[in-house]
Structures are given as C-alpha cells and as structure tokens.
Write a structure and sequence with these properties.
The complex is a heterodimer of chains A (about 400) and B (about 475).
Chain A (H helix, E strand, L loop, with lengths): L1 E7 L3 H12 L4 E5 L17 H4 L5 H12 L5 E5 L1 E5 L4 E6 L2 E12 L3 E3 L8 E2 L5 E3 H10 L7 E5 L3 H12 L3 E6 L9 H7 L7 E2 L3 E6 L6 E5 L5 E5 L2 E4 L3 E3 L27 E3 L10 H19 L8 E6 L3 E5 L2 E3 L4 E7 L3 E2 L1 E6 L5 E6 L2 E2 L5 E5 L8 E7 L2
Parallel strand pairs in A: 1-2, 1-6, 2-3, 6-18, 8-13, 9-16, 10-11, 10-16, 11-12, 19-28
Antiparallel strand pairs in A: 4-5, 5-6, 7-17, 13-14, 14-15, 19-21, 20-22, 22-27, 23-26, 24-25, 24-28
Chain B lengths: L6 E7 L3 H10 L6 E5 L15 E2 L10 H19 L4 E2 L3 E5 L1 H18 L4 E5 H7 L9 E5 L3 E3 L1 H14 L3 E4 L3 E6 L4 E5 L4 E9 L5 H8 L5 E11 L9 E2 L10 E4 L5 E4 L3 E3 L10 H12 L8 E12 L5 E4 L5 E5 L5 H14 L24 H10 L6 E3 L4 E2 H9 L5 H8 L12 H12 L22
Parallel strand pairs in B: 1-2, 1-12, 2-9, 5-14, 12-20
Antiparallel strand pairs in B: 3-8, 4-8, 5-7, 6-7, 10-11, 11-12, 13-16, 13-17, 13-18, 15-16, 19-20, 21-22
Helix pairs in contact in B: 1-5, 1-8, 2-8, 10-11, 10-12
The chains are: A alpha/beta (about 400), B alpha+beta (about 475).
Amino acid sequence: MQTDVLVIGGGAAGLAAAIAAAEKGANVTLVESGTLGGTLVRRIDDSFGKQIFGEVMTGREYVRRFTDKLSLYPRIRVVKGVVTALGADKTAEIVSTDGCRVYKAKAVVLASGSRERTVGMLDVGGTHPAGIMTAGAALKAMNVDGRRIGTRAVVIGSGESGLTAARRLTLEGVKVECVTERMPYSACTPDMKVYCLDDYRIPLLLSAEVSEIRGDVRVREVVILRSGGEEQTVRCDLVVVAAGRMPLSALYGFIKPGAKGIETDSHCMTCSAGFFICGNALHVRSGADNVSEEGRIAGGYAAEYALKRRIAEKAYWLTPTGNVSALWPQRIVAGEGATVAVRVNRPIRSACLAFKDGTGKTVMRKEKLTMIPGDETRIYLDAEDVTQNLYVVAEENL
Amino acid sequence: MLYNVRMYDFCIIGGGVIGCAVARELTRYKTGVVVVESREDVCTGASGANSGIIHAGYDPVPGTLKAKYNALGAKMFPSYAAALGVPFVRTGSLLVAFGESEKDMLRVLLERGEKNGVKNLRVIKKEEALALEPYVSPELSAALYSADAGITNPFELTYALKENAEKNGARFEFGFEAVTCEHTADAIKLGSASGGYVTAKNVINCAGEGAGPVARLLGDLVYMKHRMGEYVLFDKPSAVRMPVFGVPDERGKGVLVSPAVSGKFFIGPTSVESKRVNPYFRRGAVRELFSAAEKLVPGVSCAPRLTKYAGMRTAAADGDFHIFKGGRGNVWHIIGTDSPGLTAAPAIASAFARSFGLEREPSFDPVRHGIVRIAGKSAAEKQALISCDSRYGNIVCRCECVSEAEVIEAIKRGARTVDGVKKRLGTGMGKCQGSGCDDKIAALLARELGKSIENVDKNVCGSGLYLGEDA
C-alpha cells in the first residue's frame, strides 16, 4: 500500500501532524492502536486549548476538536492497528484485525509517544504486590474506565503527571497522604502545586524517597526516607508512580540518537532524511498545546518532503552547555525563525539564556524570569538571531 | 471444591516444575494422577522466578544426587524441550576467574565436571574468553567454558509439562492447600483448607517452599532453608551471549549475568537466608547486585533497566536433592530442589516415575505445541494468522507484540491472573512493564472467565487491580 505521509501514533502530536500534512496536499495514513487522542483521552482537567484555541477545555474536548477536523480530510486514512516493524526505507508493517499490510511511505512522522517509568525501574525495595500503578494507568482507570483503585494513596513524583493524579484521586474520594519528591525542589510550576496540592491540603515532601513498599497481597504501607535519614511509615493501599516518561523508541532503532535522544532540525526532521519526529516521542514535556504545534510543524514539512517540494536545508547547531541540560531542536534551519525548548538542570531565578559563539563571546541574550527543571522554557528565535552555530547556557542575572 | 469420588494412584502436592514433570512422566504409565496446588495456577513459586539456565553439570559435588541428575537432565533437555514446544538455546556458559587462586578453582570444577560426565568442558585463556564474550571484564585470569550449557524459558517449561500431563490424563486441582492427612489401610486422604478432599494410594511431596510443612503433615520431619534471590532485568539487546558466572562460593553459584530467551538479560540472583517464605527486594540489593555484576561485565549497571524481582529457593540443610520414601505409608518426598533443580527436573521425574515398575500407557503422547505467536512472523504469516482468527490482529501488548488471540488461548490453557498471562506470553514484561496493557489483560480475563474485573487478580487471591464497591 502506498502513501505519501505515514503518521505513526494518533495522539496530540499525530493528530496535528496528520491534519497539517493533509492541508499541504499529501495523502496521509494515520495509524493508532487505541483511541484517537492517546493519553489526552484520560485527561478531564481543563488545562488544554488556551494556546491553540484561545479557550480552556478538558483533554477529551481538545481531542474532539482535532478528530472533528480530521474527518474533513478524505485524504487522511485512519488505520486502527499497530506498526510492528519499520524499515529505514520507509516501509511499515501494520497489523490490524483486517490483516497485516506493508505500507510504503515517502515520509514518516513518528508520533508514537512515550511510556512511564514503573516501580520496578526505581530503587524502591520491599514487595510489589497489587496496588501499585503508574499515574497514567491510574488516570485511565478512574477517568475512562470508572474504576476504584484505592482508598489511601502515596504518589511518587511531583511532576505534572503526579500532581494531576493526586488531584484527581482526591476528587474521586481517595485520601492522598502525600506526594514524595526526591529532589529538594518540586518538579512542577508553583501554579500547578497550588492547583493540585495546596487547594486540597496534600503535603508535598521534598528530598523524600519511598524506600520500601510493604504488603503481600496488596500494598499495606510505604516507608519514606527523608533527607536527614529519618524514616516515616505511611499506611496506604495505593502507590502511584509518577517518576517520569521515556520515548517508546523500539520501532526506530535505526535512527541513531544523540546524548539526549533523537536529534532534529526546526522542521522536526531527524538525521534520517524523510523521518520526522514530534511530541513525547521526541521529548517529554507538559502542555498538549505545544505538542500539537510541534506535530503541525512535523506534519507540514513531512508533506513537503513527500511531495518533493523541499530538499535538505542548511542548518546551524545549538549546543546546550552549563546549566542547560538539553534543548530542542538541535539544528535551526537557516533563514527561518523557530521556537526552541530549553531545559535546565536546577532551578534558576532571574535567568537569562545566553547564546555564545565558538570563542565564548555572547552573541545574543534572552531574558527569562524563572527556569525550573520540571518545566521547559520556550523561546522564539527570529531568522536573524541564528546565523552561526551557537552554545546555549543559562545564567543567573545578579 | 474437590469432592472425593475417585481414588488416584498418585497425588502430587505442588505444581512447580518438579511436580508438573513428575505428573507428566507418570502419565507415561497406566496410572491415575492428580496434582494438588495451593495457588490458582502452576508455576507460581520458585519455578516462576529463577535464572532459566540449563547447567552443564560441573558445579555439583560428584556423588551427590545433584551431580547425577544435573548431568542427566542437561543431556535430556534439548529433545525434552523440543517435544514440549519449549525453547532451548545452547548458548554455552562461561565461568570467569580473577587472580591465581580462582584459577585453581576452575581446575577443581573441570575435574568435577569430568567426574560428573560433562562433555565439552575446558579451561580457556583470557583471549579466548574475551573473543566469546567481548564485554566480560578484561581483568579475568582464565575461564571455564562449557559448550553444552544453555538457557530456556522456565515458565514455559512448567506450563508445557502441565498441559502435556493433562492431555495424557492427569488432573490438576487448584486452590487446594493440604492441611489434613489421614492414613487408611490402602490409601492416604488429604484434606484441603477450603474443605475438599483427595484420596490416593501414593502421595508425593513436591511442594517446594512448602516442602517442610507438607512433609510434617505427611509424618516426616525435614529441615529446609529458605534463601531469597534478587534479580534486575535489563532491556534488549543483551550485554552477553551466554550466562557468565563468577567462581561459586558456599552460598551458591553467585551473581551472574545472563541472557534470557526473549533477548533481554538479567543480573542475579543474590543469596539471602530468610525466615519469610514470600520473596521481597531488600533496600541495598540493587547496589549489591550492581557491584557483583560490574566485576564480571563492567558497565552493565548502565544498561536500560526494566524491572527487578525476587524469588525464594528452598534448599535442604546439606544442599543436595532429597528423594526418599517417607516413614509412614506410601509417601515420597522430592525436595531440596534448588539449583540445578530446573535442569534436573526431566531426569528426576523420569527416574522417579520409572522406579514404580508400572505398565506403560500406549496412548501416551509426548508432544505439546506452544501457543502460536504472531510476534516474529513474516508479514505473510501474520496475514495468514489474522485471516484465520481476526483476534490475532488485535495487539494488546504492543511492547512484546502479543495479540488478543494469544491471551485467550493462554486463559484456555490455565492462566487465571494477570501474572499468569504474563508468564505464559511475556505481556507486561517489555518496555512499559504493564503500564500500557495490564488493564487490557485484566479486561480479557474478566470477559473470558465470566468475572467482574474487580475479581481479576494480579497474582494471589485478593490481589485485584481494582477495588470492588465494598472495599
């Protein structure tokens, strides 16, 4: 089966990519194994849509906007199935209940998302009986399937995932005893902390790690190790693990990643020509709106590539240094503006992002108020801003 | 509830690899066999948490039962596994020594191996060891290479033995914890904690972690030790091509680095004496495992970690297998079957079954086919499977490419819990470790077993993923 653009994954990134590719005139095949909307379908909090639609809405409503638009494009073919193999030659083996078909695409958009870190990957001792779930699985169970998952919970991890779960659990009648965070600072924005924890009087324990889970048939209690070495035993029957996400990258192992994952240019194209990547598969961040924006860029340029309208571009490198632990995209196509997402490795107040040339001379500065590790900082660079390879560092304005 | 309407010839207590192997071997003869298992499924104890290594047989002390049955089992294993549709990969194994005194130990093991009848065993130099295993520590002084050793899927072996035993007429009773024992003139009547009974002429104690209490119930005193073993599992590709061991000590074979049949690899087990029967992961265990494994394969602790798990081995005080007739009535014990119990299982079971001098059953069928898997098939083969059964096209575990059709078949063959499906198919053992598929597996179990999803357990009774209304 032939297609211009194959979009793998129908979540926030993939939906936007498929629509953008179709708008450019490409024939699109969108493969989704579950429900269109992916992880957004389990989100019933209203933190979506402000950026793209100018109004707030739940994750499900946000998805609906995209699926409604999807149905307007007959050149988008939606396949409910799983890509079981992907070749460097852009052939994909897709399994569905209709059979197993091989698709040949001219461009591929990887929007297959990420998976959550599970309790077995953490240094938590004790037993792992029933009653331990990841935050995503917990939200799905409550919001989509209407299940009861516990009566007293401890949440591991203070990022967006953990906090959303803590709030949701409380509203579903579960007593959230605390949220533990192993760093000395929380992994979320102060706004989120108020919205999810303070409003519900859920304690956030910093520099705290769950060192042991106890219980034979079901979770009975956890032991929390505090920074001073003290231990605290908390009775609970549910442990929610919100310890971060990682890209689900088994399919595209032939694309060699850089130190921080797959590297892209400002068109979302990887170093393998014609392979584009966007969303959580590229880098995990909070905020579906900017995932959709990234998907739109990836889909649009994938279409241009497929329809042979654009060829490989000249691009300049941005390299993270110092407190900047990572940034996306790593290459900015010359002559175009681009939005760059930057992550720092520690909280920095009155921060300033400095762009330096190879000799260490600062070529450009962008002011930012506060940068925290748990949140990406997004800055827009104009075409004139990037005319050479640059090193990016976060400095404190003293 | 099992009501006694029938007198069995043999009642085997314990549905681990030993109990299932004995059951299957007994069905070669004209005899009535029942296996009583306290849990809801076979393969829930040590058989469900071990290294899966088929040891060549140089490790046990010559003259012991371990030495005899390890070597025999290792020789039997390839064709035994093939008949049962169980994977076996002859990877070889490498035991590395550091320094001069450990080098001497290699010669001791070589001699032991030769005494035990192990072939294709030799001491090799550093260069050859590094050629076999490029990532093994270059600090090694020498190594013992056993070409005949291999790896298998220990869960699949236990399930296969159970399915084949059942096919040949053995009966399996689950949720039967033997708590009473009555010796009559010509039989033994066992009573279950839940009220059922089973009567048999002969009772065989293969209860693994329950060997001690079961032996006492049957009228014999045995002293068993529980030793816990912790493991860490890493994602593919494997850092090693074959199991890599260090020199063994009095606690056992030590922490090793080994591939699994799935292509993943693991480090472990530790060896910790425990009074508890339920395994758990100690807080310092990861550090201990990493430090031991790094010595063998430097850098291994940086590999992408999937999960950690622990098993409990039950060993006899003197460390050997113990196969003996009990003091009262027709009671037998096959206990102390820790490593190399898995390798020895075929040999122990067939010798044991043969020892009764029973008449052969001509209709015995040794062949068992595994569940047909869609993963790893060509596109055309996948298409053919889906055309026959469209549920092969509904992939429920994306990480390991497992379809609804396979899950349904696993349930037909005895899976009753999420972990039961997991051990049969590998669902939830991949990158997402169940976070993306546990709910789907639970829903399929609920549907196929006609239960509400709140009554679907993760493993033991009461370990539901979701709570019911009155919880």
